[in-house]
Structures are given as structure tokens and as C-alpha cells.
Specification:
Length: about 500
């Protein structure tokens, strides 16, 4: 079976966690990893490959990439050292970015130190320094672009609601009692005012389960009030997904229908929602997480069904509110889940299962099948990657020639617990440039907002967890539980002042 083998000898301070392969277009390949003294990565594809590996270091657990200087790896008799290849690939990426941006190596001391450490065989230091250098170079290059071109991306937030309320969550479950009034996830108006510092736009929480808990009984009042408030404060409004198959997204009554009845219910809901609010929404998020991710596909819909419902909702929105952009939203945007089979616990000897859709391949399928949509939504919760890698993955989606909306994101202001959450979507534990802290959260927000906003087709950046009290990711709010602004909120304010929206 094709694949590649690496020497897994690592110095003190560096630990191997996991690895998988993609092609050079960043499409995940189903991968079986065997580890001992050597790391053997097996897949059906003959290559060339990019290697994505999670390494632990002083920075935390980060997924980093080795790609042989952009050429990719092919099966070979010799087994290169994994860490050396990761560092070498990162240094070459840094050099390419400097060249494209017209920046000088001398302005980045971390890069100079990384190269010196690498040349002297101090690979632990070289790894950490090269990752930091990549962040710094990408940030400087993006800041330079914003200075030259100005900012066109809206800074947005989920200002009128919070994800959690006690034991309940607006998006990921569990179900509240069917006879009870749905929880009031609405953020009181007095708590919204401080958050306006971070927001020029907002997301409307039109969660189907929350708005139509009983069939034909719509709770429009909760959305009407939020839209009225947004218009009073001159906030543009993007919808949440009209359709999200996840258990937190569809009403309990929907789950008892057969597939054809479900399609009819999706059509009726789309007509009701868009018909009521057309003309007041800047962009409709049409379907969410419709790629083949286990948590977002609890009924195990086939590829054909997921394409069919995507077409249904997008075509309906186009006819009901023509000219308003349609956004297909995606989580797990590296698609690492597609490198393994989440529905089976064992494989037969010599066997690899067929690949699931990753967000990238599913979007490519929709485009090839001429499903109409204008925008791609990407989620960047606690990404578990450095900012140069976050930027390169963003650029890969931009290559699909659609507008981009960063629909959901959040990073914490204190060290994260090493435990799973409901969706298993977030990399547990770890950090970024060390354990999370208020200062690192502020640095991440300042740098990532700058990097993403510098891309010409990025339309909006929506921070999901605006306060700690109701945060999806614990501690990821821009204000704490007492409503006090964190440094991260002030960084967004500074960016708005430095780069006024054009």
C-alpha cells in the first residue's frame, strides 16, 4: 500500500501526538498511522503528500505541516526525520512569504534565530522559533496590505444572544423538555452595549429548533426584537444557517419524519424564514456543516442527500431574496476527520475505508454540480494551528473563487482544560504560543483579525463568544463574567480605529 515513512526520533521538549496525509491541494487522504521508532503513514494515493502532524512543545499541541518545500513527499526508500522536515518546510514557507510581501529577513529576529538553531542541530529551539517567526511574518505582511488597501471586512459578533444558558445550549443540545418554553438565550439589551465596541455587524440566531419547537408555531418575536435593535444601532445582519442537520439544529419533530418529509419541512421552513426577513439580511447562511462530519450528520445522510438539500435551500433563497449572498458554512475546516473512518472501530488487514467528504471536497463537489452560492463560511474556534497555517488554509478556500465569511471563532483567555466537549470539534488542551492567557488571547485576536481582514474577498469576521458567561468555548469571551472588557476586546476597538471600515 502506498505511503511514506519518517524517522520519529525527537529531541527533548518535542512530543509526537498524531499525523495524517493530504494531497498538495490540502484534500485529506484516508490515512493509517503506525508508530514506534518509525512513523509509517499508509494511504491509497501514490502521492505527492503533505504531512499534517500534531507536535507538543513549549507552544502547546499544534498541528503543523511538512511538504518538502512545496513539492510534497512521495514513497521513498529513505526515511527522513519528521521534525527536521517540519522545520525545513516552515523555514521555506517563511522565506517565500517574505519574498512575496517584500519584507526583509533582518526585521524578524525569530526567523534568524530559527535558522541559526537549525544549522547548529538545536531542533527543539528551531521548531519553536520557526513557528513564531511564521506568525510574525504573516502578521506583518497582512498589516502591510491593510495599510495599503484599507479594510472592507465587517467586524461582527453574536451580540444579541449567547450559546449557553445553564445546562442548555442554543446550538449543540441537549433538548429542553418539549412542553417547556425554550430557554431565553437572548442577551439583555444592557449587556449588549459594551459589546458594540467589537461589532459593526451581527449574527441572527435563527436556530430552527429554537424558533419552531412545535411545528407551525413560530417564535418570530425573539428574532423580530433582535433585528429591530440591530437596525437601531446600524448593525448589518447575517443569518445563522437556515438548515443545519445537527441534533442541536433541527426540531425534535423533524427527526421523526422520513427523508422526503424532511425535505418538504426544510422547504417550508426556508420559505417562512426568508419570506419574513428578506430585505433585512445582508447574507443568508443557507446550510451549515453539511459535509460528512459525524456530529453534523446524525442521520448518516449520504453524499447525494447532502448535495440535494444544499441545492434545495440555496435555490429557494435565490428565488425568495434574489441578489442577497448565500453562504455555505463549514466547521472542522482542515477536514482531519476525513483522514479516518469515524463510523468504524477496526479495519481489516491491508484495508482502508473510502474517504468521507471534507469541507473542502464537499464545496468542490457543490461547485462542480453547479449548486448556486456566493460565499463560504469558515469556523476558527481554538484552531490548534499557528497563524501562518491558519492563513494558508484560508487562502486554500479563497482559491475556490468565492467570498469568505469567518462565521464563528473564539479563543480562551486562560489555559484550557484537557477534556472533550460535545461536538469533539475543538482540539482539547494545548495553547498557541504557550498556554492561553488574557495577553495571548488579545494577541491572537489582533493578529488573526489583521490577517483575515487583509484578504480581499473576506467579507466579515464574526466572533461567537462575546462574553464568558454564555461562551461555547470556556473563557473565550471578549468580556469576563462580570461584564468587564478583556484586552482582546480593546484590540478589536483599536483595529477599528486604525482601519476604519471602507
Amino acid at each position: 500500500m502506498p505511503g511514506i515513512t519518517f524517522d520519529l526520533t525527537l529531541p527533548p521538549g518535542i512530543a509526537y501526538r498524531s499525523a495524517y496525509l493530504t494531497d498538495l491541494g490540502r484534500r485529506p487522504l484516508v490515512t493509517r498511522a503506525k508508530t514506534a521508532r518509525w512513523l509509517s503513514l499508509e494511504t491509497r494515493s501514490p502521492g505527492p503528500y503533505m504531512v499534517h502532524t500534531v507536535l507538543g512543545s513549549a507552544l502547546g499541541d499544534l498541528e503543523v505541516v511538512a511538504d518538502a518545500g512545496g513539492e510534497g513527499f512521495t514513497p521513498a526508500a529513505s526515511a527522513p526525520n519528521l521534525l527536521i522536515e517540519v522545520i525545513d518546510s516552515r523555514l521555506m514557507r517563511c522565506e517565500r512569504r517574505l519574498h512575496v510581501a517584500g519584507l526583509s529577513e533582518a526585521d524578524f529576529p525569530e526567523l534568524v534565530s530559527a535558522q541559526e538553531s537549525f544549522d547548529h542541530g538545536d531542533f527543539s529551539s528551531a521548531f519553536v522559533q520557526s513557528i513564531r517567526a511564521g506568525d510574525d511574518i504573516e502578521y506583518a505582511a497582512s498589516h502591510k496590505v491593510l495599510l495599503a488597501n484599507g479594510r472592507k471586512a465587517l467586524f461582527s459578533g453574536s451580540i444579541c444572544f449567547g450559546e449557553r444558558l445553564g445546562q442548555w445550549s442554543i446550538g449543540v443540545g441537549p433538548d429542553w423538555p418539549p412542553s417547556a418554553t425554550p430557554p431565553q438565550f437572548i442577551r439583555p439589551r444592557v449587556q449588549r452595549e459594551p459589546l458594540l465596541l467589537a461589532c459593526e455587524a451581527m449574527t441572527l440566531p435563527n436556530f430552527w429548533r429554537w424558533v419552531e419547537p412545535q411545528r407551525w408555531k413560530y417564535r418570530w418575536d425573539v428574532l423580530d426584537d433582535m433585528l429591530d435593535w440591530a437596525e437601531q444601532h446600524k448593525l448589518a445582519v447575517k443569518s445563522f444557517a437556515i438548515f443545519w442537520l445537527g441534533i442541536g439544529g433541527v426540531p425534535p419533530w423533524f427527526r421523526d419524519l422520513n427523508y422526503r418529509e424532511q425535505l418538504l419541512a426544510v422547504e417550508q421552513w426556508t420559505r417562512a424564514l426568508v419570506g419574513r426577513y428578506k430585505g433585512r439580511i445582508m447574507a443568508w447562511e443557507t446550510v451549515n456543516e453539511n459535509h460528512d462530519w459525524a456530529f453534523g450528520n446524525p442521520f448518516d445522510w449520504t453524499h447525494r442527500k447532502r448535495v440535494e438539500v444544499s441545492r434545495l435551500v440555496n435555490e429557494l433563497v435565490g428565488s425568495l431574496d434574489p441578489g442577497t449572498p448565500r453562504v455555505i458554512n463549514n466547521c472542522c475546516i482542515w477536514g482531519d476527520y476525513a483522514s479516518r473512518d469515524e463510523r468504524r472501530t477496526s479495519w481489516l488487514p491491508g484495508e482502508l475505508p473510502p474517504a468521507s467528504d471534507s469541507p473542502l471536497t464537499f464545496l468542490e463537489h457543490l461547485i462542480a454540480r453547479e449548486v448556486p452560492f456566493e460565499g463560504i463560511g469558515l469556523q476558527y474556534y481554538l484552531p490548534g494551528r499557528d497563524l501562518m497555517e491558519c492563513a494558508e488554509q484560508l487562502d486554500r478556500y479563497l482559491a475556490l473563487r468565492k467570498d469568505i465569511y469567518i462565521t464563528e471563532m473564539g479563543t480562551p483567555g486562560f489555559p484550557t482544560a484537557n477534556r472533550p466537549i460535545e461536538t469533539a470539534q475543538i482540539t482539547p488542551g494545548g495553547g498557541w504560543r504557550g498556554p492561553w492567557s488574557l495577553d495571548l488571547q488579545a494577541d491572537w485576536v489582533r493578529m488573526w483579525y489583521t490577517i483575515a481582514a487583509s484578504r480581499p474577498r473576506v467579507c466579515a469576521l464574526n466572533y461567537w463568544d462575546l462574553d464568558d458567561e454564555r461562551a461555547f468555548i470556556e473563557g473565550a469571551g471578549l468580556v469576563d463574567r462580570d461584564g468587564r472588557p478583556k484586552p482582546a476586546l480593546l484590540e478589536v476597538k483599536k483595529l477599528r480605529e486604525e482601519f476604519p471600515l471602507q
